[in-house]
Amino acid sequence: MERLIEWLGGEAQVWHLVRVGVLVAARVAPLTLFAPWLSMRTSPPILRAAVILALTVVLTPLAAESVQTVPVGGLNLALLAVKEALVGAVFAVASALPLHALTWAGRLTDTWRGASMAEIVAPHTGERSSPLGELYLLMGIAIFVALGGHRLAIAAFAEGLAQVPVGAASVGGAISDVALGATRLSANAVAFATALAAPAAAAIILVEVSLGLLARTAPQIPVFFAGMPLRAATGVAAALLGLSILVGELPTAYRDAIDAAAQLLMPFGSR
To answer: pTM value?
Structure first.
C-alpha cells in the first residue's frame, strides 16, 4: 500500500485524486438517469453504480490535470458535488433530446390513432408509455449505439472536464445562457418530433374525413367502431413510412445534439 501511495505521488496527491473523483462521479451520475443511450432508469442500482464507478476511474486522471486545488471539508465538497451534478444533468438531457423526441412522436401517433388506452409500462423507466413511443425510442437507441454515438458523447463529456474543470463551475452566471440554449434545443426537439409524426397525422385526418363522408351517406353503419381498426392500422403504417423516410436524419440530429450539449457546458466555465 505504501508503494502504491508513493507511486501515486504521496498521500496528499492521493487525497486530491479522491476529492476530484468525488466531483467527477457527481458530474457523471446524471448520465445514468437522463441519458437512455448509457443506462436504463430501471437498471439495478448496482449496475448503475458500476457504470458511474467505471467512468469515474477513467475520467478522474483527465479531470485532475485541469484542477489545481479542491476545497477540503465535507460541506464544501458536498456543495461542489451538487453543482457538478447540475452540469452533468444539462449535458445528459441535451445529448438525449433526439431520443426523447422519438418518444414524443410515437406517443402523439398513438393518441391520434386511438391507442392511448393501450399504454404500457415502459421497461426502461417503469412509467406508462405508448407502444409506438417505446418502439421509436428503442430503435433510436439501437441506431445511436450502432453509429458510435455513445463514444462521441463520452468524448465530448471528457472534453468538457478539461474546458470546465470540476470544482470550478460557475452556476450563477450561466443560468441565463443555459436556459436560452435549452429552450432552443427543446424547440428543435419538438419540431423534430412533429416532423416524425406528421405523416401519421395526415393519414389519420384523411381516414377521419373518409369515415365522416361514409357516415353521412350511410348513417346505419357504426362508423366509429368500424373505423377503429382502420385508424389503428393506418396510423402504424403511416408512422413506419414516415420513420423510414426520416431515419436518415437521425445521425445528423444525434451529432447536433452532442455538439449542442458540449456548447451548453461552456457558460459554466465563464466567471
So the answer is: 0.80
